[in-house]
Structures are given as structure tokens and as C-alpha cells.
Design goal:
The chain has about 80 residues and is mainly α. It contains 3 helices and no strands.
């Protein structure tokens, strides 16, 4: 018994490569297009501990905690 490739492939036939690319582009985070800037500063160990505890209470990393805080500031 011989088998021949029928030309069919796996995947959803209703999703073309162009449609898939368009969908993936629409799901990208707009902030990724923004230029990132690094913020680096020193704080006493006691303040770092306080910051880390407050972030952990919210189930966040320090970066997430500070980013959320910045987002809460009024726009100027």
C-alpha cells in the first residue's frame, strides 16, 4: 500500500498567514513601541525592605509595584 502526500496541512484552514499576522500584531502591547528608560537609584536597606514588603503584599515585583504607582500619578 503506497501513501501519497495529499497537499493538506494541519491547522485551521480559515486562518491564513496574513490573518494570523494581523491578529498577532493586534495583540501586541502598545507600550512595547515606546522607548524604555532605566531608572536606578540607591535607597537605605530599611526603605528597600519596606518597598519589597509592600510589593509582595500586592503579589507584585518591585518593578510592577513602582510601575503601577507611576501609572497612578496625574498626567501633566
Amino acid at each position: 500500500m503506497s501513501t501519497k502526500f495529499s497537499g493538506m496541512s494541519t491547522g485551521r484552514p480559515s486562518v491564513t498567514n496574513a490573518a494570523k499576522a494581523k491578529l498577532l500584531d493586534s495583540l501586541k502591547d502598545d507600550t512595547s513601541k515606546e522607548v524604555s528608560r532605566r531608572v536606578n537609584f540607591e535607597v537605605p536597606e530599611s526603605k528597600h525592605t519596606k518597598l519589597k514588603i509592600n510589593a509582595a503584599r500586592n503579589g507584585q515585583s518591585i518593578k510592577e509595584f513602582l510601575t503601577d504607582y507611576i501609572d497612578s500619578l496625574p498626567n501633566e
